[in-house]
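One example copied in:
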Amino acid sequence: MWIGRSSFTSLVVGVFVVYVVHTCWVMYGIVYTRPCSGDGNCIQPYLARRPKLQLSVYTTTRSSLGAENHVDLVLNVEDFDVESKFERTVNVSVPKKTRNNGTLYAYVFLHHAGVLPWRDGKQVHLVSPLTTYMVPKPEEVNLLTGESATQQVEAEKRPSNALDEPVSHWRPRLTLNVMVDDFVFDGAALPADVHRYMKMVQLGKTVHYLPILFIDQLSNRVKDLMVINRSTAELPLTVSYDKISLGRLRFWIHMQDAVYSLQQLGFSEKDADEVKGIFVDTNLYFLALTFFVAAFHLLFDFLAFKNDISFWKKKKTMIGMSTKAVLWRCFSTVVIFLFLLDEQTSLLVLVPAGIGAAIELWKVKKALKMSVVWRGLRPAFQFGSSSESERKTEEYDTQAMTLLSYLLYPLCVGGAVYSLLNVKYKSWYSWLINSFVNGVYAFGFLFMLPQLFVNYKMKSVAHLPWKAFTYKAFNTFIDDVFAFIITMPTSHRLACFRA
């Protein structure tokens, strides 16, 4: 039996190693592009000719642009230098159609200086939506006085749609890049990711590719979005530009495609935004380190769950185990899961919390020796009997919890009353869940004391699931890294360090 378990663990570790090596190989294939080695089928960079360029940004309510009609020029950069970084903020007039829950698009042209973009045969352009649809965040109020968080809200600033319907939001940032490497592509081996951004022209006997323009959609974050109201005449738009290398461009294209795929699979804008934050708000070298850390976190999570379930599946008695500590862990994980759900936390955090809560509920069933007997349509719960040793353990457990309750209950109740008087919430349910979870985060570690007290009285720790504890201990250090990267409530972030 031990050999079987060892073989399974070795198989899991082997699959993990293969996955990491394969991912590294894929990443290498993304950032490295083989240059053209001959002269016959090479595609030269048009930027190597050092043309005088101009950058123009237009806005329109139309998703396709046929001519210069129905467009507004919002930014014009003459003598545009692809090597020079800049950031400019302009005010954009919002059409009536957009204010009535409509859309607005930005058309970005890179063309020859002094020539209108639609009359330049060597211009490149991209289109990007400046609006997106999202359900407005519910307003928080003081539950006792009814006072809103904004103190005074004008009627015209409220969207006309119901709160559960998506409304048009403004994206206040437009991030542009141009690939500046004088890279010579092999026409027979063009990378598919870059190919769709390339426009080729024939100059004499040589094929050139025009400047590769790229709009960084990953920089558009949910936290920056602004609700578009009927009274909004103008909105600010920050246009930023920076050059980009070929390797980084290819990596960024793949990341944008990955985020788009998540949205196609049903992930909300907010869920996709959590993934964006990992790439945008993190240094790429730190991101590479995070990938390896995340891979080990996944491995340790799986092994911890496996060993924990295996331990409790074979557990027949509760000798030396604190039943109340098991009940508390179950209550804590369920409350944390409901809190993260109420806060609309990233699925990267929510899914593991949900799995952990389900496992803790199953462990309570095992600890209480509970079984369900159906009498017709009515379920009945039956509990197994306890041995003398188990009753002794329960006595120590009760003694420890009684002493602990004198300290914890007043603190938790006091914290709940204070937050009710001074903090604003979306609903009474939100206040209740926040009060519970604050108690769990602040004093949860104290509920290890009953188990420690039982260990002290019984002079033994052999009854504990040490393998699962070991894997969880490794993950506490990894959670500290994730606390800086993944968006989550502040209290949950602090709890990672507390662990």
The chain has two domains: 42-137+167-281, 289-496. Residues 68 and 118 are 7 Å apart (CA to CA).
